[in-house]
Amino acid sequence: MSVYLSTQKVIKDWIDYNDHMNVSYYLLIFDKYGADTLNNIFQMGEHSAKTTKKSTMIVESHITYNQELQLNDEVDINCVYFDHDKKRLQYKMEMIHKEKKFLASTIEILALYVDLNERKVAEFEDEKVKLMDDFINKNKSKFNYENLKFSSKVKK
Question: Which end of the chain is more exposed for a tag (fewer CB within 10 A), N or C?
């Protein structure tokens, strides 16, 4: 089980000399079409960075490359786990081949909430905590709690 975030198609620019998607673009897809989607759900994305000068910054990640992707393959990006404390986000996403349904890649992220004016870690505002808690409560039955790398870093 998981929470659908977006779908992305592998484009020609992402194909390397091995005739498959280069490893760097797995991260790009997770960042642009997964992490940005979550940040927008929690009102911590680009709009927040520009208007409130608060956003998230990824400080640690763990990625797996499970099966190669090729030109024009479509993948679904899903959230398989999400949690937070006063200033940290921990989440894990998967990349699933849309047609063949295989697991192409996973990524686990540890991110900090940052005041961009001060360039320092900040605590989440109450309304953002509510958005995250509502997301967790709505989707926790879909989360997979196995093999998480960063759980000990989220201070509950």
Answer: C
